[in-house]
Protein backbone atom coordinates (compact mmCIF):
# COMPACT_ATOMS: atom_id res chain seq x y z
CA UNK A 1 0.00 0.00 0.00
CA UNK A 2 1.28 3.44 -0.91
CA UNK A 3 0.97 5.73 2.08
CA UNK A 4 0.85 9.49 2.17
CA UNK A 5 4.36 9.36 3.65
CA UNK A 6 5.56 7.49 0.55
CA UNK A 7 3.68 9.95 -1.64
CA UNK A 8 5.43 12.79 0.15
CA UNK A 9 8.85 11.21 -0.42
CA UNK A 10 8.11 10.69 -4.11
CA UNK A 11 7.26 14.36 -4.54
CA UNK A 12 10.26 15.56 -2.55
CA UNK A 13 8.10 17.83 -0.44
CA UNK A 14 9.96 19.13 2.57
CA UNK A 15 7.44 21.72 3.69
CA UNK A 16 4.12 23.22 2.74
CA UNK A 17 4.29 25.46 -0.27
CA UNK A 18 3.20 26.17 -3.80
CA UNK A 19 4.93 26.72 -7.11
CA UNK A 20 4.61 26.60 -10.85
CA UNK A 21 7.62 24.42 -11.68
CA UNK A 22 7.03 21.19 -13.66
CA UNK A 23 5.96 18.40 -11.35
CA UNK A 24 8.79 16.09 -12.35
CA UNK A 25 8.75 13.03 -10.11
CA UNK A 26 5.02 13.27 -9.55
CA UNK A 27 4.41 12.03 -13.09
CA UNK A 28 5.83 8.64 -12.25
CA UNK A 29 3.19 7.96 -9.62
CA UNK A 30 3.54 6.18 -6.27
CA UNK A 31 5.35 2.89 -6.23
CA UNK A 32 2.89 0.08 -6.94
CA UNK A 33 0.05 2.37 -8.06
CA UNK A 34 -2.33 0.60 -10.45
CA UNK A 35 -2.24 2.34 -13.83
CA UNK A 36 -5.50 2.39 -15.73
CA UNK A 37 -5.89 0.07 -18.71
CA UNK A 38 -9.37 -0.02 -20.16
CA UNK A 39 -9.82 -0.46 -23.88
CA UNK A 40 -12.34 -1.95 -26.24
CA UNK A 41 -15.82 -2.12 -24.75
CA UNK A 42 -15.27 -3.26 -21.17
CA UNK A 43 -17.39 -1.58 -18.53
CA UNK A 44 -15.51 1.17 -16.77
CA UNK A 45 -15.05 0.45 -13.07
CA UNK A 46 -15.85 3.65 -11.20
CA UNK A 47 -15.41 4.99 -7.69
CA UNK A 48 -17.77 7.85 -6.87
CA UNK A 49 -16.57 10.54 -4.44
CA UNK A 50 -19.48 12.60 -3.14
CA UNK A 51 -22.78 10.73 -3.55
CA UNK A 52 -25.41 13.13 -2.20
CA UNK A 53 -27.27 15.92 -4.02
CA UNK A 54 -25.26 16.66 -7.20
CA UNK A 55 -23.33 13.45 -6.63
CA UNK A 56 -26.54 11.44 -6.72
CA UNK A 57 -27.44 13.07 -10.04
CA UNK A 58 -24.06 12.22 -11.53
CA UNK A 59 -24.32 8.61 -10.37
CA UNK A 60 -27.70 8.33 -12.09
CA UNK A 61 -26.38 9.86 -15.33
CA UNK A 62 -23.42 7.50 -15.47
CA UNK A 63 -25.61 4.50 -14.61
CA UNK A 64 -27.93 5.46 -17.46
CA UNK A 65 -25.13 4.88 -19.97
CA UNK A 66 -24.98 1.16 -19.16
CA UNK A 67 -21.19 1.44 -19.44
CA UNK A 68 -20.08 1.36 -15.79
CA UNK A 69 -19.52 -0.92 -12.84
CA UNK A 70 -19.65 0.83 -9.46
CA UNK A 71 -16.95 -0.61 -7.20
CA UNK A 72 -16.52 2.06 -4.50
CA UNK A 73 -18.48 4.89 -2.88
CA UNK A 74 -16.86 7.63 -0.85
CA UNK A 75 -18.57 10.38 1.12
CA UNK A 76 -17.69 12.17 4.34
CA UNK A 77 -21.32 11.87 5.51
CA UNK A 78 -22.35 8.26 4.87
CA UNK A 79 -25.04 8.49 7.56
CA UNK A 80 -26.61 11.58 6.02
CA UNK A 81 -30.01 11.14 4.41
CA UNK A 82 -28.70 12.62 1.16
CA UNK A 83 -26.33 9.66 0.66
CA UNK A 84 -28.69 6.79 1.47
CA UNK A 85 -30.25 6.34 -1.97
CA UNK A 86 -26.96 5.69 -3.74
CA UNK A 87 -25.69 3.42 -0.98
CA UNK A 88 -28.81 1.28 -1.10
CA UNK A 89 -28.57 0.97 -4.88
CA UNK A 90 -25.01 -0.37 -4.77
CA UNK A 91 -24.76 -2.55 -1.66
CA UNK A 92 -21.67 -4.39 -2.96
CA UNK A 93 -19.63 -1.22 -3.41
CA UNK A 94 -16.83 -0.66 -0.90
CA UNK A 95 -17.54 2.32 1.37
CA UNK A 96 -15.06 5.03 2.42
CA UNK A 97 -15.28 8.37 4.18
CA UNK A 98 -11.71 9.38 3.23
CA UNK A 99 -10.81 9.44 -0.47
CA UNK A 100 -7.10 9.26 0.38
CA UNK A 101 -7.67 5.89 2.05
CA UNK A 102 -9.75 4.77 -0.93
CA UNK A 103 -6.90 5.50 -3.33
CA UNK A 104 -4.29 3.95 -1.05
CA UNK A 105 -6.14 0.75 -0.19
CA UNK A 106 -8.50 0.12 -3.09
CA UNK A 107 -7.08 1.69 -6.26
CA UNK A 108 -6.61 -1.67 -7.96
CA UNK A 109 -10.41 -2.06 -8.02
CA UNK A 110 -11.40 0.93 -10.15
CA UNK A 111 -10.39 2.56 -13.43
CA UNK A 112 -11.89 6.01 -12.90
CA UNK A 113 -13.27 8.36 -10.28
CA UNK A 114 -16.15 10.82 -10.42
CA UNK A 115 -15.86 13.68 -7.93
CA UNK A 116 -18.99 15.66 -7.01
CA UNK A 117 -17.73 17.47 -3.93
CA UNK A 118 -17.38 21.09 -2.71
CA UNK A 119 -15.06 23.26 -4.77
CA UNK A 120 -12.22 23.36 -2.24
CA UNK A 121 -11.79 19.57 -2.45
CA UNK A 122 -11.56 19.36 -6.24
CA UNK A 123 -7.80 19.87 -6.40
CA UNK A 124 -6.69 17.22 -3.87
CA UNK A 125 -9.03 14.58 -5.32
CA UNK A 126 -7.97 15.28 -8.90
CA UNK A 127 -4.29 15.36 -8.04
CA UNK A 128 -4.51 11.98 -6.31
CA UNK A 129 -6.47 10.53 -9.23
CA UNK A 130 -3.81 11.65 -11.69
CA UNK A 131 -1.04 10.37 -9.44
CA UNK A 132 -2.68 6.95 -9.23
CA UNK A 133 -3.33 6.85 -12.98
CA UNK A 134 -7.10 7.00 -12.60
CA UNK A 135 -9.33 8.73 -15.12
CA UNK A 136 -11.12 11.63 -13.46
CA UNK A 137 -14.49 13.29 -14.08
CA UNK A 138 -14.46 16.42 -11.92
CA UNK A 139 -17.39 18.70 -11.24
CA UNK A 140 -16.89 22.34 -12.17
CA UNK A 141 -15.34 24.70 -11.33
CA UNK A 142 -12.11 22.78 -11.82
CA UNK A 143 -10.32 24.39 -8.88
CA UNK A 144 -10.74 27.10 -6.25
CA UNK A 145 -7.39 28.85 -6.80
CA UNK A 146 -5.44 29.95 -9.87
CA UNK A 147 -2.31 27.97 -8.98
CA UNK A 148 -4.28 24.79 -8.27
CA UNK A 149 -5.55 24.93 -11.86
CA UNK A 150 -2.00 25.56 -13.09
CA UNK A 151 -0.70 22.52 -11.19
CA UNK A 152 -3.48 20.26 -12.44
CA UNK A 153 -2.91 21.30 -16.05
CA UNK A 154 0.80 20.57 -15.66
CA UNK A 155 0.10 17.24 -14.06
CA UNK A 156 -2.45 16.23 -16.71
CA UNK A 157 0.05 16.99 -19.47
CA UNK A 158 2.52 14.66 -17.77
CA UNK A 159 -0.10 11.85 -17.70
CA UNK A 160 -1.27 11.67 -21.35
CA UNK A 161 -2.88 8.25 -20.89
CA UNK A 162 -5.14 9.45 -18.08
CA UNK A 163 -8.49 10.87 -19.20
CA UNK A 164 -9.76 14.08 -17.60
CA UNK A 165 -13.17 15.73 -17.96
CA UNK A 166 -14.68 18.74 -16.18
CA UNK A 167 -18.44 18.56 -15.68
CA UNK A 168 -19.72 21.43 -17.80
CA UNK A 169 -22.17 19.24 -19.69
CA UNK A 170 -22.91 21.83 -22.37
CA UNK A 171 -19.48 21.12 -23.83
CA UNK A 172 -20.93 17.89 -25.27
CA UNK A 173 -24.32 19.24 -26.29
CA UNK A 174 -25.84 21.33 -29.07
CA UNK A 175 -24.32 24.71 -28.15
CA UNK A 176 -20.78 23.32 -28.40
CA UNK A 177 -21.22 22.02 -31.95
CA UNK A 178 -23.27 25.04 -33.06
CA UNK A 179 -20.75 27.57 -31.76
CA UNK A 180 -17.89 25.66 -33.39
CA UNK A 181 -19.71 25.41 -36.73
CA UNK A 182 -20.83 29.06 -36.74
CA UNK A 183 -17.33 30.23 -35.83
CA UNK A 184 -15.72 28.14 -38.60
CA UNK A 185 -18.32 29.39 -41.12
CA UNK A 186 -17.65 33.03 -40.22
CA UNK A 187 -21.09 33.61 -38.72
CA UNK A 188 -19.56 34.33 -35.32
CA UNK A 189 -16.64 36.69 -35.94
CA UNK A 190 -15.26 39.99 -34.72
CA UNK A 191 -16.79 39.57 -31.25
CA UNK A 192 -16.09 42.68 -29.19
CA UNK A 193 -18.23 42.17 -26.08
CA UNK A 194 -20.08 39.46 -24.19
CA UNK A 195 -22.63 39.93 -21.41
CA UNK A 196 -22.99 36.90 -19.14
CA UNK A 197 -25.67 36.84 -16.47
CA UNK A 198 -26.94 34.61 -13.68
CA UNK A 199 -29.74 36.39 -11.86
CA UNK A 200 -31.96 33.69 -10.43
CA UNK A 201 -32.06 33.05 -6.66
CA UNK A 202 -30.42 29.65 -6.71
CA UNK A 203 -28.00 29.25 -3.80
CA UNK A 204 -28.22 32.91 -2.84
CA UNK A 205 -27.42 33.35 0.83
CA UNK A 206 -28.95 35.94 3.15
CA UNK A 207 -26.10 36.28 5.65
CA UNK A 208 -25.43 39.59 7.40
CA UNK A 209 -22.89 41.58 5.37
CA UNK A 210 -21.67 43.13 8.65
CA UNK A 211 -20.46 39.70 9.79
CA UNK A 212 -16.98 40.04 11.31
CA UNK A 213 -16.21 36.37 12.02
CA UNK A 214 -17.13 32.96 10.70
CA UNK A 215 -20.20 31.22 12.18
CA UNK A 216 -19.81 29.46 15.55
CA UNK A 217 -19.68 25.69 15.62
CA UNK A 218 -22.86 23.60 15.43
CA UNK A 219 -23.29 19.99 16.49
CA UNK A 220 -21.46 17.75 14.04
CA UNK A 221 -23.76 15.27 12.25
CA UNK A 222 -23.32 11.75 13.58
CA UNK A 223 -20.51 9.93 11.79
CA UNK A 224 -19.46 12.84 9.57
CA UNK A 225 -15.75 12.98 8.72
CA UNK A 226 -15.34 16.73 9.13
CA UNK A 227 -11.56 16.55 8.98
CA UNK A 228 -11.68 15.17 5.44
CA UNK A 229 -14.46 17.60 4.45
CA UNK A 230 -12.17 20.52 5.38
CA UNK A 231 -9.30 18.92 3.49
CA UNK A 232 -6.65 21.46 2.52
CA UNK A 233 -8.44 24.35 4.27
CA UNK A 234 -7.51 25.65 7.73
CA UNK A 235 -9.41 24.07 10.60
CA UNK A 236 -12.87 25.52 11.20
CA UNK A 237 -15.53 24.23 13.55
CA UNK A 238 -18.46 22.62 11.79
CA UNK A 239 -21.36 24.89 10.91
CA UNK A 240 -24.61 23.97 9.22
CA UNK A 241 -24.03 27.07 7.09
CA UNK A 242 -21.08 25.28 5.46
CA UNK A 243 -22.90 22.02 4.77
CA UNK A 244 -24.90 20.84 1.76
CA UNK A 245 -24.99 23.51 -0.98
CA UNK A 246 -24.30 26.39 1.41
CA UNK A 247 -20.53 25.97 1.15
CA UNK A 248 -20.72 27.67 -2.26
CA UNK A 249 -21.34 31.07 -0.65
CA UNK A 250 -18.04 31.19 1.27
CA UNK A 251 -14.73 32.31 -0.24
CA UNK A 252 -12.91 29.63 1.72
CA UNK A 253 -14.90 26.71 0.28
CA UNK A 254 -16.62 27.75 -2.94
CA UNK A 255 -16.45 29.91 -6.04
CA UNK A 256 -19.80 31.66 -5.75
CA UNK A 257 -22.20 32.17 -8.62
CA UNK A 258 -19.34 32.82 -11.06
CA UNK A 259 -17.71 29.45 -10.43
CA UNK A 260 -21.04 27.66 -10.29
CA UNK A 261 -22.54 29.01 -13.51
CA UNK A 262 -19.69 30.57 -15.47
CA UNK A 263 -18.58 27.22 -16.89
CA UNK A 264 -22.10 26.62 -18.21
CA UNK A 265 -22.49 30.08 -19.76
CA UNK A 266 -19.05 31.14 -21.02
CA UNK A 267 -17.39 27.82 -21.85
CA UNK A 268 -17.91 27.74 -25.62
CA UNK A 269 -17.20 31.44 -26.11
CA UNK A 270 -13.99 31.14 -24.12
CA UNK A 271 -12.75 28.12 -26.07
CA UNK A 272 -13.73 28.98 -29.63
CA UNK A 273 -12.86 32.69 -29.37
CA UNK A 274 -9.46 31.76 -27.91
CA UNK A 275 -9.94 34.26 -25.09
CA UNK A 276 -7.25 32.81 -22.82
CA UNK A 277 -6.46 34.98 -19.78
CA UNK A 278 -7.58 38.61 -19.37
CA UNK A 279 -5.32 41.63 -18.94
CA UNK A 280 -7.79 43.41 -16.63
CA UNK A 281 -10.31 42.14 -14.08
CA UNK A 282 -12.40 44.71 -12.24
CA UNK A 283 -15.28 44.60 -9.80
CA UNK A 284 -17.47 47.42 -11.11
CA UNK A 285 -20.45 46.89 -8.80
CA UNK A 286 -21.10 45.03 -5.59
CA UNK A 287 -23.80 44.82 -2.93
CA UNK A 288 -23.13 43.31 0.49
CA UNK A 289 -19.34 43.05 0.28
CA UNK A 290 -17.83 41.01 3.11
CA UNK A 291 -14.53 39.34 4.02
CA UNK A 292 -16.07 35.87 4.28
CA UNK A 293 -18.80 35.36 1.69
CA UNK A 294 -19.67 36.45 -1.82
CA UNK A 295 -21.62 39.66 -2.43
CA UNK A 296 -25.38 39.50 -2.79
CA UNK A 297 -24.88 41.02 -6.24
CA UNK A 298 -21.82 41.82 -8.32
CA UNK A 299 -20.70 42.94 -11.75
CA UNK A 300 -17.23 41.89 -12.95
CA UNK A 301 -15.49 43.19 -16.07
CA UNK A 302 -12.95 40.94 -17.80
CA UNK A 303 -10.91 42.54 -20.59
CA UNK A 304 -9.20 40.27 -23.12
CA UNK A 305 -6.66 41.44 -25.68
CA UNK A 306 -6.61 40.89 -29.43
CA UNK A 307 -5.88 37.33 -30.54
CA UNK A 308 -4.61 36.85 -34.09
CA UNK A 309 -7.18 38.50 -36.37
CA UNK A 310 -9.76 38.71 -33.55
CA UNK A 311 -10.35 42.09 -31.86
CA UNK A 312 -10.13 42.78 -28.11
CA UNK A 313 -13.17 41.52 -26.22
CA UNK A 314 -14.79 42.66 -22.98
CA UNK A 315 -16.75 40.08 -20.97
CA UNK A 316 -19.06 41.48 -18.30
CA UNK A 317 -20.50 39.16 -15.67
CA UNK A 318 -23.70 40.01 -13.75
CA UNK A 319 -25.00 38.07 -10.76
CA UNK A 320 -27.64 38.82 -8.13
CA UNK A 321 -31.40 38.86 -8.42
CA UNK A 322 -31.48 42.69 -8.52
CA UNK A 323 -28.50 43.19 -10.84
CA UNK A 324 -29.85 42.69 -14.35
CA UNK A 325 -27.84 43.65 -17.43
CA UNK A 326 -29.14 46.00 -20.10
CA UNK A 327 -30.79 44.00 -22.87
CA UNK A 328 -30.48 44.89 -26.55
CA UNK A 329 -33.49 45.86 -28.64
CA UNK A 330 -35.26 42.79 -29.97
CA UNK A 331 -34.01 40.52 -27.19
CA UNK A 332 -37.52 39.15 -26.56
CA UNK A 333 -38.69 37.22 -23.52
CA UNK A 334 -36.54 35.28 -21.08
CA UNK A 335 -38.46 32.05 -20.80
CA UNK A 336 -37.83 29.05 -18.57
CA UNK A 337 -35.23 26.76 -20.11
CA UNK A 338 -35.86 23.04 -19.47
CA UNK A 339 -32.28 22.25 -20.56
CA UNK A 340 -30.94 23.72 -17.32
CA UNK A 341 -30.67 20.87 -14.77
CA UNK A 342 -32.29 21.14 -11.35
CA UNK A 343 -29.98 21.59 -8.38
CA UNK A 344 -31.36 18.51 -6.57
CA UNK A 345 -31.73 20.76 -3.52
CA UNK A 346 -35.26 22.02 -4.06
CA UNK A 347 -37.14 23.69 -6.89
CA UNK A 348 -35.60 26.73 -8.55
CA UNK A 349 -38.03 29.60 -9.16
CA UNK A 350 -38.15 31.07 -12.65
CA UNK A 351 -36.25 34.37 -12.64
CA UNK A 352 -37.02 37.61 -14.47
CA UNK A 353 -33.96 36.85 -16.56
CA UNK A 354 -32.77 33.27 -16.82
CA UNK A 355 -29.03 32.45 -16.90
CA UNK A 356 -27.42 33.14 -20.24
CA UNK A 357 -25.33 35.38 -22.47
CA UNK A 358 -25.49 38.08 -25.12
CA UNK A 359 -22.67 38.10 -27.67
CA UNK A 360 -21.98 41.34 -29.54
CA UNK A 361 -20.01 41.24 -32.79
CA UNK A 362 -19.44 44.08 -35.23
CA UNK A 363 -22.29 42.89 -37.46
CA UNK A 364 -24.55 40.61 -35.39
CA UNK A 365 -25.90 40.13 -31.87
CA UNK A 366 -26.42 36.61 -30.52
CA UNK A 367 -28.63 35.51 -27.65
CA UNK A 368 -27.92 32.35 -25.69
CA UNK A 369 -28.96 30.59 -22.53
CA UNK A 370 -26.92 28.19 -20.39
CA UNK A 371 -25.55 24.65 -20.59
CA UNK A 372 -26.21 23.10 -24.01
CA UNK A 373 -28.76 25.65 -25.20
CA UNK A 374 -28.18 26.98 -28.71
CA UNK A 375 -27.66 30.56 -29.84
CA UNK A 376 -30.05 32.64 -31.89
CA UNK A 377 -29.45 35.84 -33.84
CA UNK A 378 -31.52 38.79 -32.71
CA UNK A 379 -32.38 42.04 -34.43
CA UNK A 380 -33.09 43.06 -38.01
CA UNK A 381 -30.47 40.78 -39.58
CA UNK A 382 -31.82 37.54 -38.11
CA UNK A 383 -34.09 36.76 -41.07
CA UNK A 384 -31.52 37.44 -43.79
CA UNK A 385 -28.94 35.22 -42.04
CA UNK A 386 -31.14 32.10 -42.05
CA UNK A 387 -29.98 30.94 -45.50
CA UNK A 388 -26.32 31.45 -44.57
CA UNK A 389 -26.30 29.31 -41.45
CA UNK A 390 -24.26 26.09 -41.79
CA UNK A 391 -25.54 22.66 -40.90
CA UNK A 392 -24.63 21.82 -37.31
CA UNK A 393 -23.51 18.23 -36.63
CA UNK A 394 -25.21 16.32 -33.87
CA UNK A 395 -23.26 15.33 -30.81
CA UNK A 396 -21.97 11.75 -31.00
CA UNK A 397 -22.16 11.41 -27.21
CA UNK A 398 -23.32 13.28 -24.16
CA UNK A 399 -20.75 14.46 -21.61
CA UNK A 400 -20.88 11.24 -19.57
CA UNK A 401 -20.67 8.88 -22.54
CA UNK A 402 -17.89 11.03 -23.97
CA UNK A 403 -15.88 10.53 -20.77
CA UNK A 404 -16.48 6.78 -20.67
CA UNK A 405 -15.64 6.32 -24.34
CA UNK A 406 -12.45 8.27 -23.74
CA UNK A 407 -11.66 5.88 -20.87
CA UNK A 408 -12.14 3.05 -23.38
CA UNK A 409 -9.94 4.78 -25.95
CA UNK A 410 -12.58 5.48 -28.60
CA UNK A 411 -13.13 9.26 -28.12
CA UNK A 412 -11.34 12.26 -26.65
CA UNK A 413 -12.96 14.28 -23.90
CA UNK A 414 -14.28 17.70 -24.91
CA UNK A 415 -13.57 19.46 -21.63
CA UNK A 416 -10.23 18.07 -20.40
CA UNK A 417 -8.16 19.84 -17.76
CA UNK A 418 -5.93 21.38 -20.43
CA UNK A 419 -8.94 23.22 -21.95
CA UNK A 420 -11.12 23.89 -18.93
CA UNK A 421 -8.20 24.81 -16.68
CA UNK A 422 -7.68 28.22 -18.28
CA UNK A 423 -11.41 29.01 -18.02
CA UNK A 424 -11.26 28.02 -14.36
CA UNK A 425 -8.34 30.41 -13.92
CA UNK A 426 -10.41 33.23 -15.43
CA UNK A 427 -13.03 32.61 -12.73
CA UNK A 428 -10.36 32.52 -10.03
CA UNK A 429 -9.20 35.97 -11.17
CA UNK A 430 -12.79 37.20 -11.05
CA UNK A 431 -13.19 35.93 -7.50
CA UNK A 432 -10.02 37.77 -6.45
CA UNK A 433 -11.50 41.00 -7.84
CA UNK A 434 -14.73 40.31 -5.93
CA UNK A 435 -12.85 39.63 -2.74
CA UNK A 436 -10.63 42.72 -2.94
CA UNK A 437 -13.35 44.94 -4.43
CA UNK A 438 -10.76 46.30 -6.84
CA UNK A 439 -9.61 47.03 -10.37
CA UNK A 440 -6.78 44.63 -11.16
CA UNK A 441 -4.32 44.49 -14.02
CA UNK A 442 -2.98 41.06 -14.94
CA UNK A 443 -0.10 39.95 -17.16
CA UNK A 444 -1.15 36.74 -18.96
CA UNK A 445 2.50 35.97 -19.82
CA UNK A 446 3.93 36.09 -16.29
CA UNK A 447 0.57 35.12 -14.72
CA UNK A 448 0.94 37.83 -12.12
CA UNK A 449 -1.00 40.95 -11.20
CA UNK A 450 0.97 44.11 -11.87
CA UNK A 451 -0.77 46.52 -9.52
CA UNK A 452 -1.73 44.61 -6.38
CA UNK A 453 0.50 42.51 -4.09
CA UNK A 454 -2.45 41.14 -2.12
CA UNK A 455 -4.04 39.90 -5.34
CA UNK A 456 -0.87 37.97 -6.19
CA UNK A 457 -0.98 36.29 -2.79
CA UNK A 458 -4.53 35.17 -3.52
CA UNK A 459 -3.43 33.36 -6.68
CA UNK A 460 -2.37 30.54 -4.38
CA UNK A 461 -4.50 31.32 -1.34
CA UNK A 462 -3.75 29.94 2.11
CA UNK A 463 -1.09 27.22 2.40
CA UNK A 464 -2.58 23.72 2.64
CA UNK A 465 -3.35 22.44 6.12
CA UNK A 466 -0.80 20.18 7.78
CA UNK A 467 -1.19 16.66 6.46
CA UNK A 468 -2.35 17.83 3.01
CA UNK A 469 0.78 19.53 1.77
CA UNK A 470 1.93 16.32 0.04
CA UNK A 471 -0.36 17.24 -2.87
CA UNK A 472 1.49 20.46 -3.66
CA UNK A 473 4.88 20.96 -5.25
CA UNK A 474 7.42 23.32 -3.66
TrEMBL record:
Q: Which Pfam families match?
A: GFO_IDH_MocA, GFO_IDH_MocA_C2
Q: Where is the signal peptide?
A: 1-27
Xref: InterPro entries = Gfo/Idh/MocA-like_OxRdtase_N, Gfo/Idh/MocA_oxidrdct_glycsds, Gfo/Idh/MocA_OxRdtase_bact_C, NAD(P)-bd_dom_sf, TAT_signal, TAT_signal_bac_arc
Q: Does the keyword Transmembrane apply?
A: no
Q: Report the GO molecular function annotations.
A: nucleotide binding
Residue ranges occupied by any Gfo/Idh/MocA-like oxidoreductase N-terminal domain in the UniProt entry: 45-163
Q: Which Gene3D superfamilies does this one have?
A: Dihydrodipicolinate Reductase, domain 2, NAD(P)-binding Rossmann-like Domain
Keywords noted in UniProt = Signal
Entry annotated with the keyword Signal: yes
Top-level taxon: Bacteria
Gfo/Idh/MocA-like oxidoreductase bacterial type C-terminal domain boundaries: 218-292
- Alphabetical list of NCBIfam families matching this protein: TAT_signal_seq
What PANTHER family does the database record attribute to this sequence? BCDNA.GH03377, OXIDOREDUCTASE-RELATED
Name assigned to this protein: Gfo/Idh/MocA family oxidoreductase
Amino acid sequence: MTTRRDFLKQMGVAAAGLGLAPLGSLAAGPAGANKTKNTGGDKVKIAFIGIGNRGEQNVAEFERTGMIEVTALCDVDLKGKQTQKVQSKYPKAKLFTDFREMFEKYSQNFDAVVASTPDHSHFPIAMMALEYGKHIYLEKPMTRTFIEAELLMQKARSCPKVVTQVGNQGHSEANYFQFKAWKEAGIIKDVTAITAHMNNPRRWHSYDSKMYRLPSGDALPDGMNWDVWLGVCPWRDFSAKFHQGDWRSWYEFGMGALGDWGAHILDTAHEFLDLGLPYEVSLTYEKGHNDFFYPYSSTILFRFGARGNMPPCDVTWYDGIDNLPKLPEGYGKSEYNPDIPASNQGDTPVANLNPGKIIYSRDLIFKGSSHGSTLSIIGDKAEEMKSKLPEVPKSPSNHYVNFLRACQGTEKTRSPFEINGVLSQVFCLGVIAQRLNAQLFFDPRTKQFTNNTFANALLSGMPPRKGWEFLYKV
